[in-house]
Write a structure and sequence with these properties.
Elements: H1 2-9, E1 16-17, H2 35-43, E2 50-57, E3 59-60, E4 72-73, H3 78-97, E5 103-111, H4 119-132, E6 135-145, H5 152-161, E7 165-171, H6 175-181, H7 187-199, E8 204-211, H8 218-229, E9 235-240, H9 262-278, E10 282-284, E11 288-290, H10 295-301, E12 306-308, E13 311-313, E14 320-323, E15 328-331, E16 334-338, H11 342-350, E17 356-361, H12 364-379, E18 381-383, H13 384-391, H14 395-409, E19 414-416, E20 419-421, H15 430-435, E21 448-449
Parallel strand pairs: 2-5, 2-14, 3-4, 5-6, 6-7, 7-8, 8-9
Antiparallel strand pairs: 1-21, 9-11, 10-11, 12-13, 15-16, 16-17, 18-20, 19-20
Helix pairs in contact: 3-4, 4-5, 8-9
Length: 451
């Protein structure tokens, strides 16, 4: 109770802050970055280097009410096939602009529902990806799989294309909760999808589960976590449901009067966290869990954990190229985001130009603060020597910044001879502590609850 009182006094249960999957965050992107900069940044990728690629498929058979992703519903395969043809053209444009010998470190198909694509189209898109950028040694090809939207033919196509990591969204197994969030997905359907994945030799499995959903209780989330554990995922993302109906209008379908309070959200998270840890999972950052054999756990132990738009990653490639509507690319020079509207993106590609609509070019200050925030989110510490070496920042300036942060967060933050550290009791505040190093105006966007 004493810790909760301190967390209350420090504002945890009232704050709304970014998730910090990028810095600066997407609301601060502007039209100052367009297709010309995107092409320049692609051309600057060194020959023989390694990059990552994200491919966005913005279609779903049905729209889940909890989701805030850029998606649209379709009952027909026709728009999906038409969109896939545009992806093929976009990949050809990328290939024509890349230096020789560039290979893939990571390939991720996300959405939406990538498994909405028919099997023959999956094979064509995968071939086009690897023709543009071949897989490098030890590369990972992951796909978000909707258990309600997969069959043997499509799973065979993915396995044949080289998928070696699959990701499934669970959210919650409770029927009442599924009904109020518009996500009907039974445990039996989910288990069968996992069996299909394993039967094809895909050994790495990710799963997403949510806390903070309407009608969720400690008992219900414990039951859902235990069912998920029976499927033996290698990696789990335990995300807090972000109720942002001003950004995602479909969330107005969710009964906000049945959402748990911030204090109850913290209890739900702690219930789930304890179950994962008890079952042998390592805690990764603020909201991920991984078996000790998983790449995330190994990266954390080696000090190589990173954060990107999909959350935590062990990918060290300096470039992430986003293909498809609304996709965001990350370069050493900055961020570039494709047009969010599918129709606008399709029109641009059909006219032979990339659809880059906005982005952000990094300043030196951005790079410094980005690394500080990422270090806190990944390792709960900032290494002063690293920042002085890599960013040329004077120790006196860092000491001032650290002292200001420690004054704001009391004993939830420790300033040490090597830098700044968040002890375990302060980790629920991690996003708020990271926010103290963010110089951008938070009022420009409505963010999710800090817990």
């Amino acid at each position: 109770m004493e810790q909760e009182s301190q967390l209350t006094r420090l504002g945890l249960f009232d704050a709304r802050v970014p998730r910090y999957t990028s810095y600066p965050t997407a609301p601060h992107f502007s039209a100052d970055v367009g297709s010309a900069q995107f092409e320049d940044w692609i051309a600057a990728i060194p020959a023989g280097s390694s990059i990552s690629l994200y491919m966005h498929v913005p279609f779903c058979r049905r729209l889940c009410w909890f989701c805030a992703c850029r998606t649209q519903g379709t009952q027909s395969d026709d728009p999906v096939r038409a969109y896939a043809e545009v992806l093929l053209a976009e990949l050809k444009m990328l290939k024509d602009r890349l230096a020789p010998g560039v290979t893939l470190s990571r390939l991720h198909w996300g959405g939406g529902t990538p498994t909405l694509m028919p099997a023959d189209m999956m094979a064509r898109v995968a071939d086009a990806v690897f023709e543009a950028v071949p897989m490098g040694e030890g590369a990972e090809f992951s796909v978000e799989i909707d258990p309600n939207e997969i069959d043997d033919a499509r799973m065979d196509a993915l396995a044949a294309a080289g998928m070696n990591r699959a990701s499934i969204g669970v959210q919650d197994f409770d029927p009442q909760i599924q009904q109020v969030i518009g996500r009907d997905q039974s445990y039996e359907v989910t288990r069968r999808a996992v069996e299909m994945i394993r039967e094809r030799g895909v050994q790495s499995l990710n799963a997403d589960i949510l806390y903070g959903l309407p009608h969720q209780t400690n008992t219900k989330i414990a039951q859902s976590v235990q069912k998920l554990l029976s499927l033996s995922p290698d990696r789990v993302a335990l995300y807090g449901y972000a109720h942002v109906p001003w950004m995602a209008r479909r969330q107005t379908m969710i009964p906000s009067d049945h959402l748990p309070t911030p204090q109850e959200r913290l209890a739900l998270f702690e219930t789930a966290r304890q179950l994962f840890v008890t079952d042998g999972y390592d805690e990764i950052g603020i909201d991920h869990f991984a078996l000790p054999t998983d790449g995330l756990a190994r990266a954390q132990k080696a000090g190589l954990l990173r954060r990107n738009f999909q959350g935590y990653t062990d990918d060290l490639a300096p470039v992430l190229v986003g293909m498809g509507a609304s996709s965001i690319s990350r370069f050493p020079q900055g961020y570039a985001q494709n047009a969010s509207a599918t129709s606008v993106h399709i029109k641009a590609i059909r006219e032979g130009r990339f659809s880059t609509a906005r982005g952000h070019a990094f300043s030196d200050e951005d790079k410094l603060r980005s690394r500080m925030i990422e270090a806190l989110m990944c390792d709960f510490r900032i290494d002063a020597a690293e920042l002085m070496r890599d960013h040329g920042v004077p120790r006196a300036r860092l000491e001032t910044m650290f002292a200001d942060c420690a004054a704001r967060f009391e004993d939830m933050v420790e300033v040490t001879p090597t830098g700044l550290f968040i002890p375990e009791k302060g980790r629920p505040l991690t996003r708020m502590i990271a926010r103290s190093f963010d110089t951008y105006d938070l009022s420009k966007a409505g963010h999710s609850s800090a817990i």
